[in-house]
Amino acid sequence: MKVKICGITDVETGIAAAEYGADALGFVFAESKRRISIEKAKEIIAQLPKEVFKVGVFVNETRENIETIASAVGLTHIQLHGDESASFSESLSLPVIKAISFQGNESLAALVDLSNDFILLDSPKGKYRGGNGTVFNWDEVNPHLLSSKKIILAGGLHADNVEEAIKIIRPFMVDVSSGVETDGKKDLKKIQSFINIAKSTFVGR
User: Fold this and answer.
1) What predicted TM-score, i.e. pTM, was given to this entire model?
2) 20 to 30 A from 107, CA-CA: which of 77, 147, 189, 190?
């Protein structure tokens, strides 16, 4: 099972998460308590292994700004958390992860025709577009509707529920932010525990 640690804001956490086995790290360039500057993101990414996905998170940002930031800091993937259209996603130069808030299977069915390979399945919107640390009912999701996509599961995951979530949704990757924090800061022990549990969860194919 692949793991993404989102909301990275310092070098120590980024390097440690990669060493613990994180497959992707997320850097938030949208309004968020975890928002990062271009300079800091560039500093962290420069010290990460080549094979780790460096994902930039954006909300209703202009194509020009996304491309400028992606190039400046060394992103490998773009995560769109706003109201971006399919054509907007297709216009970007890097692979796109389109985040959607789960609001029933009818809305999921409409996503089958999206051209991007990655769909991030998140909880309904809160104060911010994503990163709100709330769980939705995984049992309500019909994963067959998106069987042609690589599903990244987010929304309120932590070490105590990620195994159950993986077994129900059987995603390509799990994504965590607040679930590996203590008092609003990334906790290295929680990151290591989350990664270990997620990667040891067997999901038959």
Assistant:
1) 0.92
2) 77
